Amino acid sequence: MAHVTAAERRPQLVKAAIALMTREGVAAGSTRAIAAELGVAQATVHYTFGTKEDLYRAVMEQLTQNLVDHVERTAPTDGGFAESLAAMATALWHTVREQPATHQLLNELTLFALRTPKLHDVLHSHHHQVEVVTSRLIEEVAERTGHRLAVPAPVVAHYFLGAFDGLSLQLLTLPDEAAERHCLQALVSSTVALSGGTLDEVPLPAA
Questions:
Q1: What's the rounded Cα separation, in Å, for the pair 13 and 34?
Q2: With CB atoms 3.0 to 4.6 Å apart as the test, which of 25, 35, 64, 147 could cross-link to 42 if both were Cys?
Q3: Burial class of 100 by CB neighbour count within 10 A (0 to 12, 13 to 18, 19+)
Q4: CA–CA separation, 131 vs 121, rounded Å?
Q5: Among residues 15, 24, 115, 111, which one has the least CA distance to residue 61?
Q6: Which has the closest alpha carbon to 102: 54, 66, 58?
Q7: Residue 46 and residue 79 share a domain
Q8: Are 95 and 15 part of one and the same domain?
Q9: What domain range includes position 163?
Q10: Are residues 118 and 167 in the same domain?
Q11: Total domain count for the chain?
Q12: Which residues of the chain have pLDDT under 50?
């Protein structure tokens, strides 16, 4: 059998860990179970990552990058300021509806990292990276549409993401499609208002 380097094995183990924990939860993500998911020896996991925390760090980094890539891909390139924010929020919301297990895993990993000092830095990095990208997209939309932000873009991004996380958790625990759209509508309108827009209802794109 050909030798597989640690650099080659690393993304394979991360993918296996994500698949396993998405399906069965963080608690099931032992190094033994992750190794079995990929069909390798448990020692391979420790050789590649050192500790389980290091593997979890890589998993969080990959999930963060996946989320950031999606947000950037779906960023609107036309429409007014309010319409663009509505399009961004709706595109992000679709990922929660279409990939609930992935968002549940992110929530589980967040709580796990809060109780694991060795993962505090990657947890901070995750939230910081998502906020930086969201802030940049808001600034770009404001510049493209000629909208003058009432508060700095990082403040808008911080508010939007905090409220969005709350709505996402509600969807995961108590889904209500009618209420979800009203709440998402309110989130977009309040974000626009914080940004210096009017409180008039901002229409969401068709579901």
A1: 7
A2: 35
A3: middle
A4: 15
A5: 15
A6: 66
A7: no
A8: no
A9: 56-194
A10: yes
A11: 2
A12: 1
